[in-house]
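WARN retry 2 of 3 for item q-0093 after timeout on previous attempt; input resubmitted unchanged.
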Amino acid sequence: MSWRRWSRRVRRSLGLPAVSRRAALWILLLFVGLAFLSVTVFSDFATTLSQYRFQHYEPKDFQREEHVEQTSKPPKER
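OK item q-0093 returned
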């Protein structure tokens, strides 16, 4: 089966109209552009995540954590 017959059969079974070569080129360029954009955004997100190092908190972060723990505990009974 040729590529044209197969594409025509699929297009008709899905109920899609015929697409000119110019429209197909625009669709292809749009797809490539969206793929490039999504890869760029994902790589920026992954880079941002890799820069987050929870082992390297500043000392005031530990002090803040201790303060939150102390204030959330109920008062000691005597």
